Amino acid sequence: MNKVQLFQQIQKKHSYLCVGLDTDLSKIPAHLLGLEDPVFEFNRQIIDATKEYAVAYKPNIAFYEALGPKGWESLAKTLEYIPNDIFTIADAKRGDIGNTSKLYAKAFFETMNFDSITVAPYMGEDSVTPFLEFDGKWVILLAHTSNTGSNDFQLLTDRETGQAFYEKVILKSQKWASSDQLMFVVGATRADKIERIRELAPDNFFLVPGVGAQGGSLEDVSKYGLNKECGLLVNSSRGIIYSSNGEDFAEAANREALKIREDMSIYLDKYM
Amino acid sequence: MNKVQLFQQIQKKHSYLCVGLDTDLSKIPAHLLGLEDPVFEFNRQIIDATKEYAVAYKPNIAFYEALGPKGWESLAKTLEYIPNDIFTIADAKRGDIGNTSKLYAKAFFETMNFDSITVAPYMGEDSVTPFLEFDGKWVILLAHTSNTGSNDFQLLTDRETGQAFYEKVILKSQKWASSDQLMFVVGATRADKIERIRELAPDNFFLVPGVGAQGGSLEDVSKYGLNKECGLLVNSSRGIIYSSNGEDFAEAANREALKIREDMSIYLDKYM
């Protein structure tokens, strides 16, 4: 999916909601556990319940990998079930030396058919560029994450330029790819930083986790982050998919997604 | 496996060789391709041919992941086949926020039974510590890697302390775990840096890729990197496993592994 198509989706749905499919057997409703593939069944119903309001789905790969080969099958079925006009993100945070990154790219872009993958920048250019060789596929590079440990290294200040490490990542990586193929992960708990990051990357989409359960404010993120093509995908995982763990989990997810979409619709008018 | 047991292995075999199982269907001998599980069959024969000289095996997970669920089955069978007294490394370069890192840890330490996993440090403490909660399991943290892109970010100098980013990683992470659970990835192409890194982390094991195909010198690595408990696992992948792509691939791998072991045996006497 290209940037124009993504923006069309956003305009059509008045939403920049990404639903995180962090599907955990210990958290899904008990009545699903007897089924042959409870993970897929849960995802299927969540997708049906939220696809009207979601412009992206983001399975965090750890949840599937933890289940062994069966988890990968649930993931593949889930990906196939997501409607084609919705953007898909493999939240895998991969990154390795060149020929190995290429294999990860192959795993997520060819063996599976994700639109994008999250990538860790630590190993530098030749760990990132192999993902960019796939037409129409996106890299979503970790920039400033939403966890407390993000302060350990991402905020170090470079002696030469006075830039923070995460700023170096944002600036340098823009030489490797245009905003048609490169997004950044920017935590919503960093609303104070989003204005600055928008200056550094005016045209790139940001994938923003940390709204809701992790405490970030959707209005702040939107106010400082929206650009002329929206430029935001705001993720909610637990707040939507686990808002009920009874038989009504899908209806509850529908209600939560709608609530967020209503706010987003307002912010699109107000701040974009 | 603990540090004492690892050092015993090294002393018994006069070797600190790690064999990288980067098993690629496009590179393994043609006569294996008709078998039901060519990846496992290749690994099985490589393990049989090298286990006398190898103290560790390191499958790079990308190679298995690229094959989908079948790849994970080949990986699981390979791991089971490796003798219990040989150290196993999941070269996965994972790292995510706390509860998600825990799932990755579960995938590699419980669903599978690896001794260790490589982890990327970008997201900081709470992305690394979940891996440390598993008794007898190791984190091998990326510090200074062997690829050209490693210069992009790892060498940035922190304004406050004058330390390079990779040095910060080495220093800070030692507060999270002792050398009984924490190793570092240090590229062999950085022999000039190994002396410095050994000063920063006198007791930790280093996993050293980049000898051979990537051009690093085993003697330099050994001279500057060996400590009183060896402290090195030097990896060779392509140089051993693809030294022949004929029916004699296992014998060829045996010869290459022996050659490296002979050098290592000399360096252990000379530099340890």
UniProtKB/TrEMBL annotation, chains A, B:
Domain Orotidine 5'-phosphate decarboxylase span(s) in chain numbering: 16-253
CDD domains linked: OMP_decarboxylase_like (cd04725)
Key words, A-Z: Decarboxylase, Lyase, Pyrimidine biosynthesis
Catalytic activity field: orotidine 5'-phosphate + H(+) = UMP + CO2
Residues the record marks as active site: 93 (proton donor)
EC code: 4.1.1.23
GO BP terms: 'de novo' pyrimidine nucleobase biosynthetic process; 'de novo' UMP biosynthetic process
Keyword Transport recorded: no
GO molecular function, one term: orotidine-5'-phosphate decarboxylase activity
Highest taxon in the source lineage: Bacteria
Enzyme class name: lyase
Pathway(s) where this gene product acts: Pyrimidine metabolism; UMP biosynthesis via de novo pathway; UMP from orotate: step 2/2
Keyword Lyase applies: yes
Gene3D superfamilies, per database record: Aldolase class I
Protein family (similarity comment): Belongs to the OMP decarboxylase family. Type 2 subfamily.
HAMAP family, alphabetized: OMPdecase_type2
Protein name: Orotidine 5'-phosphate decarboxylase
Species lineage: Bacteria, Pseudomonadati, Bacteroidota, Cytophagia, Cytophagales
